Amino acid sequence: MTHRIYYTEPYCRTFDAVVARAFEHEGRPAVTLDRTAFYPTSGGQPFDTGRVGSVSVAEALDVDDAVVHIVSAPMTEGMTVAGEIDWPRRFDHMQQHTGQHLLSAAFDHLFDNRTMSFHMGAEASTIDLAREAAAADVERAVDEANRVIWEDRAVSIRFVSPAEAEKLALRKEPVRAGTLRLIEIDGFDLSACGGTHVARTGAVGIVGMLGTERFRGGTRVTFVCGSRTSRALRTYRDAVAGSIRALSVLPGELPSAVERALAEAKDLRKSIKGLQEALATHEAARLLADAGVIGGVRVVVEVLDGWDAAGLKAIAAAATASGNACVALLSSTSVVTARAAGVPVDANAVMRQLTDRFGGRGGGKPDLAQGGGLTGPTREIASAARAILESVLR
Q: How far is CA 223 from CA 159, 188, 209, in A?
């Protein structure tokens, strides 16, 4: 077993230890130490990183009551080493985890809405509540958590037996047997937890709620604490400022301006689609008039710059509907092959030959196929398509 310094001294940044075992863990060099300050992934909190001796610690894992340190190079058993954790990463985790206790306790106190799970991500954290929470209730819980933060209450650690734990008002039932490690936020929360936390709530700084969503019959709340809140604020500030400049509106007018822009864009797409379909009919007629005839079938192979895949399909459909024809239409991004009913050409087989030769992806049905991502000069792909069609029809 490893003596876990972080259980009693979460602010410990450096320590001395002896390499108890050196080995490979899943193909990577690893060590266990007789004592460590490195927190292994557990309880929704990610692992610490840092250095042990002259090598870096990339990950810490909890394996069979020992903390396994994944290191950058093999080490020797029995050697004495100096360990140092990445303090900014650790302190960030302490802020997020303590903030989670505060937020979960606030939902529990105010609305009897229990936290079912907690996850700390690299940019934001989440709690999953047992029941759905209204927007106003979420805001109230966040305000309550911040009130306790700004009161700078003490956060303490203590250990109790199962019998002692039964007499305490724990926020949730402990999931582990044996001696329990309790985290107490003075006058606000008491929970069994093995994670790292700040010594006073003021060190959390602030809890910022980023969003909510329905999740498994309850509500998932996404939040940030401490320095992450500043980063999130900068991100939102820059996004809002850029949107305001682009739309030339005041901050309070931004939501309605975005709604108008989306509605206008939707109307424009409808108009463009109608115009494109009308133009496609005229374009198809032009191509058929200029097409050569092979075996009684008009063969249209054309590069049409400026048309997207939907436009090419519209032209191909119009051309094959109005005449005994087969077509291969290309743009810089797309290829469409098609044939009229009764024409002895498999459009999908033609597409497969083109993608086999020029790469990309494509497929469809015998009468219409579409592809993209083909590499090579567009004119060369067009020539290959013409050659395939002519070989089938001759």
A: 29, 20, 4
| DSSP conformation class of 168 | S
Predicted confidence at residue 47, as pLDDT, reads: 97
The CATH class of the 91-238 domain is alpha beta
In angstroms, the CA 220 to CA 198 distance is: 24
Q: Thinking of the domain 3-85, which architecture would CATH place it in?
A: Beta Barrel (2.40)
CATH architecture, domain 276-393:
Roll (3.10)
Q: Give the tokens for residue 51.
A: 């250095």
Tokens of 117: 């799970």
218-255 confidence digits (pLDDT tens): 999 999 999 999 999 999 999 999 999 999 999 889 99
CB 125 within 8 A of CB 222: yes
